[in-house]
Amino acid sequence: MTNSITKVLVANRGEIARRIFRTCRDLGIETVAVFSDADAEMPFVREADQAVHIGPAPSAESYLKTEAILAAAQRTGADAIHPGYGFLSENAGFARAVAEAGLVFIGPSPEAIEAMGSKKEAKARVGGAGVPVVPGYDGADQDPKVLAQKALEVGFPVLLKASAGGGGKGMKRVDQESELADAIESARREGENAFGDGTLLVEKYVERPRHVEVQILGDTHGEVIHLFERECSIQRRHQKVLEEAPSPALDDALRAKMGAAAIAAAKSIGYHNAGTVEFILAPSGEFYFLEVNTRLQVEHPVTEMITGLDLVALQIRVAEGRPLGIAQDALRIDGAAIEARVYAEDPAGGFLPQSGPVLDWHLPAMEGVRSDSGVETGAEVGIHYDPMMAKIIAHGPDRRTAIRRLRRALRQLSVQGLTTNRAFLVQVLEHPAFLAGELHTHFIDEHLAESLATTVDPETLRRALIAVALDDHERRRASSPLPSIPSGFRNNAHTPQRLRLALGETEHEVAYRHHARERGRFTFTVGDTSVAARVLGRGERTLRFEVDGLRQTARIVDAGERVFVQLDGQAFALRRVPRFPDHTAEVPAGACVAPMPGKVIEVRVAEGDAVEAGQVLLVMEAMKMEHKVTAPEAGTVESLHAAVGDQVEADAVLAVVG
Ligand code: ADP
Ligand code: ADP
Ligand code: MG
Question: Model's pTM, two decimal places?
Fold first, then answer.
């Protein structure tokens, strides 16, 4: 039986929704998004042909609400639903409800999802088909005494695992008998709280393992093929951060063995559509089955890049009931691919998720680099969902090139406004052990735990500060309210202009002079050194400049009191330090200056008005506060240099009272 899919609803959000829409568009299939209150302005909502609001921000009231999703499908006339990953993707009840509503579920059968949803049952089924499983206990008797006894038999260290677990949750390593009773109790509680099921497995804890998984693809005619492996050993909190294909640990013989095991596992449950069979690979070369993820995987793009296949297109093909039509031995690995997950999280602060507005998202197009992003400039990373913002994937003829391309892409990626793992990802990619392919699941703890705080290169920082000063100067010039008042007007032309910026707790100051006769040329003093600097060009959010003969382009995002600079692979989140200097020596008598950079929001006088000492002339807004600019003495407003809406710099002369 085949049916043609013409309109797909994606029951998901963010990057994966956009990813699926892209293939649908290619295939001429119409698209429907569903969205919660929190996502109304997200790119995936705009990109769909139609979008239906399904509820408030919490997933339980939106992305996990089967009825709301089915109603959206009915209303828009969608004939198929793609669940993406996470949310309802591995929920057999949802898959069944979709079918019962007369729609096509783009994924495996509810029975397969059910069978693999429990790690316990999965191990039993797959182990029964001759696939090696991690030694341990997966029995029905859940008496804590029995579990403890089994753990002793398995031998320490052991891993207690919630049978219903996922996403790296519900796992506890136990190293000695004295910790066992507490660990069993707490793992059970975690399983109950997170997954509503406290059933535990006891597994031998494999030391320094690699995580290697095999992509499988089956059709409804009984054909199952594998699309090679992905290695996902770089993990934090048992969750993947970098994934690559092929695995540097596999040779052709091991690849064939693991591929065959994955196909056997899939066939043991009559699997169709895309799925992933996860294994851990011990240093001895032995591998053990972990679980089957019955959905499209976050890291599927690396497989697409080395095989040239579109997995979403193949999922749709299979869901239509058509045969795969791809022979196993026709598949070849083309080069190498590697993916980095860009998370809004703080590596130096225990990888804690971060939220906030994305003030800049920019990645230049590059050869061999693919970006699957859920965000763009102006989007908001909220607290309700997974903090993954995007995946950057690089492909090359070999692993070294793929890594180098990914490193360059991540260094050029400008993601500003919130803390991300961007710099951390670059650190991993530069690590000698990573480059040598010596990976294991504790790689981050072992190699990088001590160096998680972002280090600042003082030379780059210095150039970033200069770039901000140059950019400020250019902007001021471009928007100078009165051409006769030169930018950064000073009574005494020999007094340098100063800019103070803080990076974290540390304040930095640059002083500079503009060469009156050579526009765009400056002399900067930072600390006790002086350098020549030039503006070469300015675009939207970019400044091309030269410092001491070195030419570069900085990306600069000016957000009022905060300024973000991306330069030479480093990101600087700077804060403008307001100055309250004594201006009397620097400005003409009677001049009224802006106390800090900000916006003029009110002008209360006109030129020629008589004013009293202390009378409010203008009102500015800066640092989210209002500041009144007053007349220093009684007199007449001789000149006025600002209008409502003007953005002015600190010390700019706003009016002169004489
Ligand atoms: P994958 O196996 O596809 O690479 P992960 O291993 O990172 O993905 O996560 C496994 C599953 O758990 C995915 O379906 C993912 O969406 C989901 N997941 C990831 N992070 C979280 C989280 N913080 N909370 C709940 N589920 C999550
Ligand atoms: P999840 O459903 O959360 O993805 P998995 O069983 O797939 O759970 O395991 C997730 C990760 O935990 C693996 O990638 C691996 O790093 C680690 N892990 C799982 N089982 C073992 C084990 N027996 N020994 C050592 N590490 C393990
Ligand atoms: Mg897993």
Answer: 0.85
